[in-house]
Amino acid sequence: MLMRTLVTWFINFIALAFVGCNSQTFPGGPGSTGIRDVPFSETYLFDFKTGAGPISRGNPDGNLQIISAADLLTLLAAAQDQQLLGLGTVSGLVLSNGSPVQDIALKVTDADGNLLAIRMEGKKVGNNLVLPDGFICPAENISFDNICIKGSVYYNSPGGVPDFSNNRGTSVAGTYTIFNLPPGEVYLWASRGGRGSARIKVFANKISVGKLQVIPIAISTVGVTGSVIEAKDESTAVPEATVSVLGTTDPGLTTTSDANGLYSFISIGTNGNYLLNVSKSGYWDSYHSLNTTPFQAATNIQDVTKTVSTYSNSYIAEIASEGGVPVDPDKGIITGRVTGGDGTPQHCAKLSVRDAAGNDLSASGTVIVYVDGSRGSCEVTSDTDQTSTNGLFFIYNVPPGEIFVSYFTKVTLGSGGATSSSSGGMIVPSFPGVVFVQNVTNSGTNTAQDLSGSIIDAASSASVSGAQLTFLGITPQTYSSDSAGDYEVDDTLIGGRAYRAKISEAGHADTYEIFTMTDTETKQNFIISPPSTTTNPALGEIYTLLIDQGTGQTAENVTLRITDLNGNPIAGGEITSSDGIFRIPNVPPGMVNLSVISGEDSGNATLYVYPNGVTYFEFVMTKVIPSRVTVSGTIKDSAGASVVGSQWRAVGRSDVISADGNGDYQGTLESFGRFIIKTEKDGSYDTYNFFPRTGVLSSKNLDLFSISRAQIGDAATQAGIAQSSANGLIVGTTIRSSFSQEISSTALGAGPHAAALGFFNQDAILDIAITNPGTPGTVTVLFGSESVDGAFGNPSIITDGIEDNPSAIAVADFDGNGSADLVITNRDDDSITVLRGDKNGNFVAVDKPIVDAEQQEINPHPLSAPIAVVAGFFDSDTFADIAVVNEGDNSVIVLLGNGNGTFHPIVQNTSIVQNGVENAPKAIIAGDFNQDQRMDMAISNSGSGTITVLLGSTDGTFQPLSDPNTGSPISVSVGSGSQPESMALVDLNSDARLDLAVIDKNTDVLTIFIGNTSGGFDRLADANQNFVPSIAIGNDPSSISVGEFNGDGRADLAITRQADNSVLVLFGNGDGTFTLSDPIALEAPLTTPEKILLSDQDRDGLFDLVVVGSHIGTLLGRENPVGGISLEARDMNGARVGEVRYLDSAGQVDESLSATSAGVGFNGGFVIFNVPPGLVIVRATNGGVGNNILDSIPDAVSYTKLRALSLLPSVVSINGVTYDPVGPPPAGVPVGAVNIQVLGMDVQTKSDANSGSYSFDIDANGEYIVRLCWDLPGQPCQ
């Protein structure tokens, strides 16, 4: 980077900083002893927010940072940069729910959207460097290593100094520093790793400190580590082997094993199915499947470990010698092990190998070799044509193409002569001169099952009659669909095996699709493609539907790259689809690679293409939160009428959107952002809308305002005011956060009920599944309504597989098909039910959900009065797992997913692993408590008044939290006589660790526990280490949920109360304490609320709450106009400015009003005339508390929606410390005698010279800019 000229003023400024600097000590936190006494830069803190309660000493929100000149020099030196005279510096923190966020990369623009600064990794697409948000880096800003760099953006190290070598994004500290920004407003955009935006004012030669609130989107890459070993002797490492990912030319995906045989890839896409090639002189090339970790939460992306084996020429010769036939180098080898669901090798397996036509290849030169070992439990122990206890097999001289491998086993059970059978199969490719390594897993009981379903036209979704259905890899037999498009295949296909179906019909293309038979009657609809656009019969076509793993919906706006296994582009190379449906013609037959390359999305698949036909494939991939979302609405004037011929532009961006002839518009904005949108029209003021914000889904009804000059002229006349063009106007509405209720008419009956939300069908609205008690019980599935906000409809009652008194329910994708599945605990039947879902919201029960390694149902059953369940990724594979709480024997059992809707327990020394808990466990919750990237669990024990904490490991086992001194297991005590039940996990005190909120059913209180470094939880204490009392929450609380309901950025809680049929909202203060609001009475006919779930049913970006009781109620978050609010405007010096007038229900100035109106039709309207240009704070002075900070712009309108809450007290106390952030927040050194001024308010104070502590009182529910400055000798702070 070019060094800039260091100007004289900065040299003089830094010279002061060195006075006494080297002798300073740096204590550990703002509250530690020792005061730093060096010159400090004038610092402006933006986004200082008050909520409903006080900010007490110890609350990190009360720590005000001021940056010393010495630190500024350190920052510049670390960044190898310099600061120019007249420019400013921005420093800040990226947060999500109050916690720092890692790996957020930033882009900075001016008000016109011009790029000011950026430092970010990109992807080379053609000649362009494309950044994750779709931005194309200017050519002059592209570095040699594909980094887009402009200006002076730096991501600070955990020590708080810029790391000029870090181009990925924020460190664990979440902080950044940006030098050399021009004075005025700049706009920060989270362009990688998260979604969010902010604006901040830059001051010449000063420092601005801001917070950027984001929604993190875990970076959709993962690391891979592993070993290369000898196949013959697995204890022998193989150095200098080349390991590469097929289907790409990315040099980062080719590596060489080291002297110990170790290899690694730093970054590869998640949710991908890849092929690895291992090559070395003197060895056959070997191909290995690599499945990367499914996309998970940001704190739980686990690196993948993959051991790969090499096959020396001599070892292959030994295998051929055993087979008695020489190896043909023009043919392939398939090898692997037959394994149980838990990965243990299985013996007694007899393999069959067939080609697509169903021919038995062993009759035409293909040889199967079983590696010797014990076969002691086999039905015929002397038969060597079956796997031994090592499960190992070799199939060689396999012709190239798609190969169908199947097997069955017969194992003798004990001395009585009884046998059990298991079976499985796989479809794998064979390559000339290559060893293809793939294990095959027990997944059935060698029983033929019925198959039925419909043939569906891919384009029209209509049923297709007269279609011919055949199955590759078995003896050919044809089945036909009837006049309704339905088909049946009776007792032909073996349960647990994969098959490829070929569907043919005269008006359609031959369509090939892989599916898996379950070990029971199977329902499967097959897709048939319209005629192919491929004219060359030697080529094929791919018809793929991309499924978002997180929602089960079709993934929109995705770009795929299609290559051969050498990474060469084929069939057009790169293709983008807006609806997630891809038809890719002219594809050469054989194996091809599909890779998702759009933005931060990820996914990879290899598939086999047949000539003269269409290969249909549902591609489950990671679709991250889109960087931009669609927004739509109407542009209106101050009377609410549509404005025709207007256009708008988001300040900080350059693109312009025009409204149509009705004043309606549609455009896009960045996800999870807050914006200033400028509307323009002849005859109207340029109107700056300061209220718009977006969520993570499309936003509808985002109405904007364009205020006409005639309307303002009439209003000024009514008010007797002459509006000057040198001044600005502020127009707006006072609003109040509230909930509106939508109650479902579907009666659920008496409880207890459990409930879970998920995307069950193909729309973008959350659906709900609810358990109903009974012997047997049922599950009710209702679908979110697209036409009525918050409503649920189209109920279906599921009885299949549901047993006695279902007690809990969880949602996950247990079979990997991209659709949500359900798991239900049946308390009085000691069982679970697994319901496999499809993309249309249908569910089918799994016949045997808990099995052993041979896919046999476990007997005796390992469950005892299961009361609660949680889903997660508990081991290191790619299958979703569950943990079940047993009330009957006070235990937790982890059941690891097999990837097909079944689960197996962990077995050690022939015993099923369980963890003991204490008396009467009631609920379970999972998260990463100790920040080791593994899921941990907390279980509430109602009978003993405790919380059991279990810490996770890499193999799915859990260890109890232990005393660090004795190693003895310990639990978290909730209190004497307590009955803890419902719990919630969230970071309540901004320390980046999960905290625990626990409902005590016995005393009707809420107790807060703060997460500690060991993974345990400590009772919330104040600054003097006294326990903070539990919070009384009313009679019979039943459930708890987390959200953010009052706009202050702090985590809030919502609790259902059965005694008075209400919901109680508690507003978080940011330190684990809360301020209670008035309870919300639930509307009839909903009674007996049992469960409360967080949602956004109407996709407006405001949190909603779904309550389950006798019925389902949705509390829709709203910001409604409110009257009775008196206002004033102040400049940043605190002087009152402008002339406030209030509008009546018709939108006209009413001189008799002293507060906003509460009439019918137009509530809460106001206008402030003649506001001098610059930053202004508009605040409520009576009738509520709240404010907005906005710019007054000459001869323009600033439109705002001021949220005014009814809070008592309306003034809150702020207590904290001024400090120098010499380490990662909140660490730092206290700074004494700092002048503190809250701009625009009557607040000026100075921190204590000895401790740095301060206090002041200020309006609740407010957002402020705090100015900090330090008196220099002879230069007092002004």
TrEMBL record:
InterPro entries according to UniProt: CarboxyPept-like_regulatory, FG-GAP, Integrin_alpha_N
Top-rank taxon: Bacteria
Secretion signal span: 1-17
A Pfam family that the UniProt record links to this protein: FG-GAP_3
UniProt keywords, alphabetically: Signal
Classification via PANTHER family: SENSOR KINASE-RELATED
Protein name from the UniProt record: Cadherin domain-containing protein
